[in-house]
Task: structure prediction
Amino acid sequence: MEKLDSKTVAEAVREWVGANALIELSRDSAEGRITGWIVHEAFAKVDRSTRQTWLWDGMSGNQLLKPWKGLRGTFGELATQIGLVLSFSPTEYENAFGESAQTA
Amino acid sequence: MLIGAAEYKLAAEEHLKAAWICHRDGSYLSCHYLSGLSVECILRAYRWRIANEFDGRHVLPRLYKAAKFDDVVSSSDTNAMVASFGIIAERWANGHRYASPSKLVKYLNELESVRNVKGDKLKKHSLEMYEAAEFVVGLGIGKWKS
Result:
């Protein structure tokens, strides 16, 4: 199977979430999956299960996010090379990382 | 005192047990803190096997990557890991050891993580934290290779 580049995934996600999001995605090891996180205000007040559905299966768009086919729809079977991707609102990010998403 | 991988793993198990005792006895703030701490310990155990140096930061998502913890998560466990690790990463911070129960509830309300919870929000949150930690730590211990 073709090897998926984490930058390619990050660029696709960037198309969905826009320039204001913080995206950190990389492979932790050469043979490991791509993991990381996405920080965006659109995730505030949205439960984790819905966010994951948006991320993996897509969504029709809303005031803050563009329509998106999801990681599975965008990368097909290559998406099996993507592992844990967390989504944070700016408030959640600040708690988890001890820094503002704007200054990260 | 030098703490190595085996000690971190043991600490993860001990803190998880203590978290349950705290939850059972109604010490929900302590359960919250110990649940997150147990996850930090299992991540540190895995990280130590890669690089045996102490990283003073307590940022769980970064520790997860540094520990290459995803390597022990199978495809079928990924959704459960996102759900469980997501709860811990969103809601826990090392500084919460200084928090009061009311301060923690205020913070959880800001996150809306206990939205629509009727009754004791901290009790519900405490159980969710414990169960999330139980999954993450349990998976880490189950996949541990001595």
